[in-house]
TrEMBL record:
Superkingdom classification of source: Eukaryota
Coiled coil: none
GO biological process: mRNA export from nucleus
Keyword line: Repeat, WD repeat
Family, similarity comment: Belongs to the THOC3 family.
GO CC terms of this entry: THO complex part of transcription export complex
Name by which UniProt lists this protein: THO complex subunit 3
UniProt KW 4Fe-4S keyword: no
Organism expressing this protein natively: Neodiprion lecontei
Keyword Ubl conjugation: no
Annotated InterPro entries: Tex1/THOC3, WD40/YVTN_repeat-like_dom_sf, WD40_PAC1, WD40_repeat_CS, WD40_repeat_dom_sf, WD40_rpt
PANTHER family: THO COMPLEX SUBUNIT 3, THO COMPLEX SUBUNIT 3 THO3
WD repeat positions: 34-75, 78-120, 203-244
Amino acid sequence: MLCGQLCQINMAASNSRVDELTSYFKTHNKIKEQQSHSAKVHSVGWSCDGRLLASGSFDKCVCIFSLGTDRLKQETTFRGHGGSVDQLCWHSFHPELLSTASGDKTMRIWDTRSQKCTANIATRGENINISWSPDGNTIAVGNKEDLVTFIDARVMKIRAEEQFNFEVNEISWNKDSDTFYLTNGQGCVHILSYPDLELLHVIKAHPGTCICIEFDPTGRYFATGSADALVSLWDADELCCLRTFSRLEWPVRTISFSHDGQLLAAASEDLVIDIGEVETGEKVADIPVEAATFTVAWHPKQYLLAYACDDKDTYDRKRDAGSLKVFGFSSE
């Protein structure tokens, strides 16, 4: 009897929270757009303090924006990569440090205070993904040939390389930085220990290609997005699937948890970005878009979602718009 009552109380609280969030986004649905690149934007990400937003593009550049109360302002553009900037990530507690992975076979570190590149590490392939460990000590970079390079960020030296014999799509660390996760073309999540890189678990997460992976800020959960158009939510300790989000109809390319771990944004080739409540899976809001979405990233302190789509120029439909957008500003 008591268990049933507790379940009812929890369900009522969750429903109340969903209603609260739904109402919030009805008055916070304004979108700000920045057109700063000459080609499509592949990756966006916020600094750990939320003051800066970075975008990496096929045009080989990285743009840095500052966040005001109701707008973005472009601060600087980093140039130096000889190929597309496919993914970027910030240091988890040094808000001025940004890392980028490029098709030019390098990984770079940029310092927004000095506005310079402070490290340039050559790797053995065209890089497509990057992940900075939460403890700040290691940067993992993956390339098109499914080789992952582990760089000691304290001395900027390559510490290890791991060649995989399957398609590696996206990489991530757990909250304690002692296990390393990667998604693959067989729908699996491989979990390795770090630094010894021993295989600990293989989870068959999806029937289709497992494309993206993201940990929530608390470390309790991680989510995966797949070619089967599903997002699945996993308990990070038990490694069991808790629920799926099934509102999208195309392969899920990108996902992001909000700062409090309560919301999960997911995007694909659908003309909408889906925002769901983590505990129930219920829809809280959606963002209409005009093209496939490459990347989404929640702000680390507010309900602001940065994203970039395959938008085309208004006057020349053959040209990329090179824009990024932020959803969630007050519309009142």
